[in-house]
Amino acid sequence: MNHHPKRRVRGLTVAAVLAASALTLTACGPDIGSGGGGTASDRLQAPTTDQPEGEITIWDRSGDLFKVFDGVIADFNKKYPKITVHHEAVDINAKLQNTLITGTDVPDGVFLDDAMVSGFADHLWDLSDVLKPYVKDIAPQKIDANTVDGGIYGVPYDLNPGLLYYNATALESAGIDATKIATYDDLLAAAREYQKAKPGAKPIHLEQGAFLGQLQLEMYASQLGTSLADAKGKLRLDSPEYKQILTFLDTVQKEGLGTRSEYLGQTDIAEMEAGNEVFYPWAIWFDFAPQQLLPETKGDWRAMELPAWKDGGARSGAMGGSSFVLPKDGKNSQLAWLFYEFLMYDEAGYSAVWGPSDVYPEGLNTSIPAYLPAAEPTKPLFQKVPALGDQDLWKVATEAGSQIPADTAIPSWWNASTDYLGTDLQRMYDGELSPDQVIEKAGADIQTNLIDRQ
Length: 454
Hints:
Layout: H1 5-11, H2 13-18, H3 22-28, E1 54-60, H4 64-79, E2 83-89, H5 92-102, E3 109-113, H6 114-117, H7 128-131, H8 140-145, E4 147-148, E5 151-152, E6 155-156, E7 158-159, E8 162-167, H9 168-173, H10 184-197, E9 204-207, H11 210-223, H12 240-254, E10 258-261, H13 266-273, E11 279-283, H14 288-293, E12 301-305, E13 322-325, H15 333-345, H16 347-354, E14 368-369, H17 393-401, H18 414-429, H19 435-451
Parallel strand pairs: 1-2, 1-3, 9-10
Antiparallel strand pairs: 3-13, 4-5, 6-13, 7-14, 8-11, 8-12
Helix pairs in contact: 4-16, 11-18, 12-19, 15-16, 18-19
């Protein structure tokens, strides 16, 4: 089972590898409004022959997902025996930008974080035409995340619904039924009650990392149908929605209800194992922790939909995600599209990706498909999770994912903005800034240093 530590890399992809390249992408990447959706020549077309032939080069990151995608190639070749797939493990964030700029040895398809797609749009095919048969059945949030100026520049891969993970055993011992938590006010009340039963506990996770802290903030915003920028790249941080979220987080900190720690860092793990940190609002991929990093509380944890910001509101938001992009300078982009079409929209393909495999014997349970027919709640692709007390995480996650609102675009400058918003969020936790000051300061810095310089 030594493959599981790689899951953390999978979950931390955005935080671990994008931060170093964020400013470079903002400086050198294309304007968010210059990408496409413009001319027919920008839009990829599918091959017209029944049995196309040729060779394609596909880039994926090394690790467990590479092994999963590699294992699907044999199934793909049953359908397309004349297409040879050269599957390469690549440090995409270190190599892709220069490769696209120079036009040398450009791959036909690349696995890429959603947060980076818009920054590369000028170099990518607009996939609107090839995705047309499927787009109505793809999670709207993922279409929004891959849309730049009307064009769709990524084949949506995963959906990462936000969930509320909780230590059911610890809460039950304090007489708290977590399943009755319906709103964030309920969560605050439950945290206060737990702290009375266990003095010294700080029940709710507060993320100490600037990048992941902002990513989590965007999960909360996604619940409210908003994001840091709209589809045209206009900043919308100064809004009632962000004020509400920041006020909640500020309350958690000021009342001493939050364990402020880095995601799955030493302190984070210790506080969870001690029963002091029992609520973890995070993406589905937190399930790595009880499966591999929490031996003392393994089996005690459960997952449920996020609380709503108001009665009847959405019970989930998106946190992170990846897609597949096809560079214009690839030699066989049309054939690469067939590979991704098989992977994501053919039952044999997506079943092989998320279903039980040599890499994940119980199935890939750190995400769910963005393609809704594949994410059918009654037809699980991965099995129940023993570390969650044999909970049917598939059902919880797919039902949560269906509630994620749309209208959550990702601008080309998003990664670089964590130097401002992510940092100021931490300053709020330090008591240096109020929620209003975070909005004012981070908003002004992002506008001046990132948006106005495009």
